Amino acid sequence: MTLLQLHQDNFYLNIGGYTGNYSGQLFIVDSTQNNMQFKYDSLLTAGYTHPSAISAILPNQNINFSTISVNAGQYSFSLQPNAVCLFKINIPGINSTHY
To answer: Is the overall model pTM greater than 0.70, yes or no?
Structure first.
């Protein structure tokens, strides 16, 4: 059974072992933010052709973000259904990530 989420949910980020205060950025892609498919569909609805819609979107591709503060290693946020998010958190002394 697949459950379709129809409402906004709240989430809690906890950076284990880090209790300081850090700055960072939050990037969200959902139905209204940073959504190139939505922009493309809107241009087609406005009368653009496929090539002209692509031409209008390509030079203007950027991803907007919000500046966040992570306090005591924790951050609360909410997401719309089917949203994707990426955090970039600046923690002094960490220069790279190893997988």
So the answer is: no
Domain at 10-90, CATH from 2.30.29.30, 3.30.70.260, 3.90.25.10, 2.60.40.1500: 2.60.40.1500
CA–CA dist 23, 54 (Å, integer): 35
Q: Rounded to an integer, what distance in angstroms lies between the CA atom of residue 76 and that of residue 82?
A: 18
E-assigned strand segments in the chain: 9-14, 22-29, 65-70, 74-79, 84-90
More confidently predicted of 97 and 26: 26
Please report the pLDDT score of residue 59 as a whole number. 72
CA distances (Å), origin 8, targets 54, 58, 81? 30, 30, 6
Per-residue confidence at 1, pLDDT binned at 50, 70, 90? very low
56 Cα distance to chain centroid: 22
